[in-house]
Design brief:
three-stranded antiparallel sheet; 11 helices; alpha/beta
Length: about 350
């Protein structure tokens, strides 16, 4: 079965619930559901299926609140050169293309990605690399987009080698959904392309539910880990997908078992038409408290909020210290209160 790319494709596969707003929702963002993800969806419970909720359009996407933004994390304000986002002094985002294997309905770049989405021309990519080359303070380059692993392995290898040839670039990090949703793309050639030699390479994979880690995906992650690539997990906290403690715990355990270190749990961004995905920060903090008592540090992500306007990520996890005139009060992972002497 090919990737599903239209409402007609989804209807043919029994993946749509009737809603007169679906045509408008489909116009707001591209559709793509890989065969691997489509096979995981429970057709008998579409409204509550956590996989369908992530990828299948919903009429709720037509509901836009005044607080929601077209550019919720301020990429455009921090983009000095096409394809570059420079938010922190020592690192930049490099977005070589805007194509993804799937289109997540909560994506913070949902208005930028899709078939026909801009890819950098040869000249634009050269200008982006020149920007990095001219700034010795740039220590880390983060390849994102779109999904950088959608590049052909030859083109990906050329880009990785070009970055490795910049002396002050020590780390290249890639953010990708490919190993999770399109594991067959993780070929030996692609794995070789990720090993340019001099720079340290880290791969962050986006996974929101343990069911996404089906056997083909676990095999793809194993190929990457066996090649010596350190893997990190990025998860978005989503209502109806993973906003209960049992689901989050299962996901974090599944990631660690697959040799993926949970890295970030993202609070959902203020993306237009995504209010049905958002939980409160208080709910997220409560879930993080519960995780602390259930999982080892190896399986703990950092709960982060991307501050609207391009001001970067900040941790918003629960606090465990309380002020006291005589001493600190420390709360343990199980809710117990303990006094701790001042310095």
């Amino acid at each position: 079965m090919p990737t599903l790319r239209s409402l007609d494709d989804l209807e043919r596969e029994g993946l749509l619930s009737p809603d007169p707003r679906l045509q408008d929702a489909a116009q707001s963002m591209a559709i793509a559901v890989t065969p691997e993800m489509a096979a995981l969806i429970d057709r008998a419970n579409l409204a509550n299926d956590p996989i369908a909720r992530q990828f299948v359009p919903s009429g709720q996407e037509t509901e836009v609140s005044a607080a929601e933004l077209a550019d919720p994390i301020g990429d455009e304000a921090r983009s000095p050169v096409k394809g570059i986002v420079h938010r922190y002094p020592d690192r930049v985002l490099l977005k070589p293309l805007h194509v993804c294997p799937v289109y997540c309905r909560f994506c913070f770049r949902r208005e930028k990605v899709g078939p026909g989405g801009e890819a950098l021309s040869a000249g634009e990519l050269a200008a982006a690399l020149a920007y990095i080359r001219a700034r010795p303070e740039i220590w880390e380059v983060i390849l994102t987009g779109g999904d950088p692993l959608m590049l052909a392995p030859r083109r990906l290898a050329e880009l990785m080698n070009a970055l490795a040839a910049i002396p002050h670039v020590a780390i290249v990090r890639l953010h990708s959904r490919v190993p999770i949703v399109d594991p067959e793309r993780v070929s030996d050639e692609l794995v070789r392309a990720l090993r340019p030699g001099r720079v340290g390479v880290w791969l962050a994979v986006h996974c929101n539910h343990a069911r996404e880690l089906a056997p083909p995906t676990r095999a793809a992650l194993a190929r990457l880990a066996d090649a010596g690539l350190p893997l990190m997990g990025q998860t978005v906290l989503l209502k109806g997908v993973n906003d209960d403690i049992e689901t989050l715990e299962q996901l974090m355990r599944a990631l660690v078992t697959a040799r993926v270190k949970p890295y970030y749990l993202h609070h959902p961004d203020l993306v237009r038409g995504t209010g049905h995905f958002r939980v409160s920060i208080e709910q997220g903090q409560a879930l993080m408290r519960a995780l602390r008592g259930r999982l080892s540090g190896l399986a703990q992500p950092t709960y982060v909020l991307d501050v609207p306007g391009g001001h970067g990520k900040v941790p918003v996890g629960p606090a465990y210290l309380a002020d006291d005139p005589q001493a600190m009060t420390v709360e343990d992972a199980f809710g117990g209160q303990h006094r701790y002497p001042p310095a």
